[in-house]
Amino acid sequence: MGDLHANPAPTDVRLAPRDFKLLANFIEREVGIQVPPAKHTLVESRLRKRLRALGMSKFHEYTEYVFGPQRDEAEIIHLIDAITTNKTDFFREPHHFEYLVQTVLPALLADEDAGATRPLTVWSAASSTGEEPYTLAMLLNEFAERRPMRWQVIATDISTAVLERGKRAIYSEAVAAPIPPALKHKYLLRSRDREKALVRIVPGLRRRVTFQRLNLLSSRYDVPGPIDVIFCRNVFIYFNRKTQEEILRRFVDLLRPGGFVFLGHSETTNGLSVPLIQIIPTVYRKGR
């Protein structure tokens, strides 16, 4: 391959239909995300950055590099990072968090050992850059101050890039805007350089969130179960129904009896054969 950083890729390089199909099929097979022809331009734009980083001038060079006999496994991670969409916010879909605090946590703590002899475990299964798991951590810590309990948050994602950002826990003040003022004061540190307008989650809360890479298409999830609550929101929209059912069945296997699953506002288990009972729209519970 020679010096991969010698020549930046031209900005007018185009992704041929054959190479797009190779990439789209790979992403659907390995990640479960469907990449229809309408996403051709998006894929081309995102992967052009990888061509520049590798000093390549053609997309065909790139697909040969990734899928050829001498395939580079490390580059596959960069490919997945580039293609997958990671959109999240603090306190996104706030009614879910209200229901968690007002209904779900009291229901779970009705079990004598929950939060006492064992930690209550909440899993953010598509954590992206960390806004969701840190939102959960803030609310769990607030709840625990009123009603003492042990708790932990597990955060997983397929993208190593967003996981690293989540571990750093540094956000712009604009991104942190949805956090209520009292929680900002308690859980955010401001940058000494005020011109940067950055904040960081306090160390005590960062230590309560464990980040790890996980592909939801894996046949086995390497997370410490049983789990009390799983948040997997606005992810199923990218999967076909068969894949959704398979993922939900693996969730159920990890859930403690009586545990809860939160899906996104446009997602549902209707038509899927999974042992979950709908409690309210987009919130489901495993039988006891």
Question: Can you offer a commentary on this structure?
Answer:
This protein is an alpha/beta fold and 288 residues long. It has 2 domains: 17-83, Orthogonal Bundle (Chemotaxis Receptor Methyltransferase Cher, domain 1), CATH 1.10.155; 94-286, Vaccinia Virus protein VP39 (Rossmann fold, 3-Layer(aba) Sandwich). The protein is 40% helix and 18% strand. It has 10 helices and 10 strands. It has helices spanning 17-31, 40-54, 59-67, 73-83, 94-109, 131-146, 160-168, 181-187, 203-206, 241-254; strands at residues 120-124, 151-157, 170-172, 188-190, 198-201, 209-213, 227-232, 255-263, 276-280, 283-286. The strands form 2 sheets. It has a 7-stranded mixed β-sheet with strand order 6-2-1-7-8-10-9. A 3-stranded antiparallel β-sheet has the order 3-5-4. Strand 7, helix 10 (241-254) and strand 8 (255-263) form a beta-alpha-beta unit. Helix 2 (40-54) packs across helix 4. The model is unreliable at 1-9 (pLDDT under 50).
